[in-house]
Design goal:
With 288 residues, the protein is α/β, with parallel strands linked by helices. The chain is built from 12 helices and 8 strands. Bound molecules: 3-hydroxybutanoyl-coenzyme A.
């Protein structure tokens, strides 16, 4: 029931896109990674050029595997060229519905009619996007976790418009990438993981914003009492304070419910451009 996928195009080379591209190339797919921002694209290319030799040095990849993966991935700012013969497009751009809708309308025009269009959105279900295309049956969510090269789970979400063939193809791609995909048969905002994560984050931010404990101690408590690999604040730094801000603002604007407004510390850090690992400073400081 699934279709064969040979070429994948990843649109958006940021936090998620650069790793999804490399993961796909390491899994044997031909990949184009595209972004309108040349600097972000160059950073993604530099990442591939350092990550692969590091894996070889660590004994996790052979020279040949690294070379083959590198030869399968190309980087371009030209969206048309990137998507020309793609069997699957994975969109990983900013978490703003209007941006995604504009992009999908454009992708629908330039991609071959059989191309599957997937969004890596963290929260937005694909039915909010599929209606701008002439192929809603080929639109779905494929949601990776950060860092995409490492985290095993991927959420595949079937919208009411998504065909069984598209879902099975998406699941097959995830399996080929060595992931453990979970299938959501119904659309729900935030899917499984981010609904649970949001509840934890909300509580952690409340405890910090109301002065109950420092962010370091909240992180320590979660790591050592609950056994999470990192605490909520370190994790916000990893996924990006800008992402937390945009997601909360979008949700607030959509629902009008002030409970969804970003927390004061998230607003403060967003305005100061302290967006976490990507900018070298968030709650913690990082060498960039
Ligand atoms: N990119 C690629 N690989 C990375 C990496 C990165 N940023 N960080 C770590 N790794 C790799 C290392 O190379 C190493 O690989 P190896 O074992 O094969 O050599 C392995 O991960 C372990 O790395 P470290 O020993 O350096 O570090 P840790 O053991 O502390 O692991 C971590 C780092 C994997 C990030 C771990 O702390 C973790 O699992 N944290 C939780 C991450 C998480 O919850 N992610 C989900 C976020 S929510 C999300 O993504 C939703 C989205 O919508 C925003």
């Amino acid at each position: 029931m699934s279709r064969e996928i040979k070429k994948i195009c990843v649109v958006g080379a940021g936090n998620m896109g650069h790793q999804i591209s490399l993961l796909a190339a390491l899994s044997g797919y031909d990949v184009t990674c595209t972004d309108i921002d040349r600097e972000i694209l160059q950073k993604a290319e530099r990442f591939a050029d350092t990550y692969l030799p590091e894996r070889v040095a660590k004994g996790k990849l052979t020279e040949d595997q690294a070379k083959a993966a590198r030869s399968r991935i190309s980087f371009t700012t030209d969206l048309e060229q990137a998507t020309r013969d793609a069997d699957l497009v994975i969109e990983a751009v900013i978490e703003k519905l209007e941006v995604k809708r504009r992009l999908f309308a454009q992708l629908d025009k330039i991609c071959p009619p059989e191309t599957i269009l997937a969004t890596n959105s963290s929260y937005i279900v694909s039915s909010k996007i599929a209606d701008v295309t002439s192929r809603p049956d080929k639109v779905c969510n494929i949601h990776f976790f950060n860092p995409a090269l490492v985290m095993k789970t991927v959420e595949v979400v079937k919208g009411p418009h998504t065909s069984e063939e598209t879902v099975q193809t998406a699941m097959e791609v995830c399996h080929k990438m060595g992931k453990i995909p979970v299938l959501l048969h119904k659309e729900i905002y935030g899917f499984i993981v981010n609904r649970i994560l949001t509840a934890i984050r909300k509580e952690a931010l409340y405890l910090y914003d109301t002065g109950v404990a420092s962010y370091e101690d909240i992180d320590k408590a979660v790591v050592h009492a609950l056994g999470h690999p990192m605490g909520p604040f370190k994790l916000i730094d990893l996924t990006g304070i800008d992402l937390s801000y945009h997601v909360s603002m979008e949700r607030y604007q959509e629902t009008g419910d002030p409970a969804h407004k970003p927390s004061p510390i998230i607003v403060e850090k967003y305005v100061k451009k302290e967006w976490g690992r990507k900018t070298g400073k968030g709650f913690y400081s990082y060498c960039t």
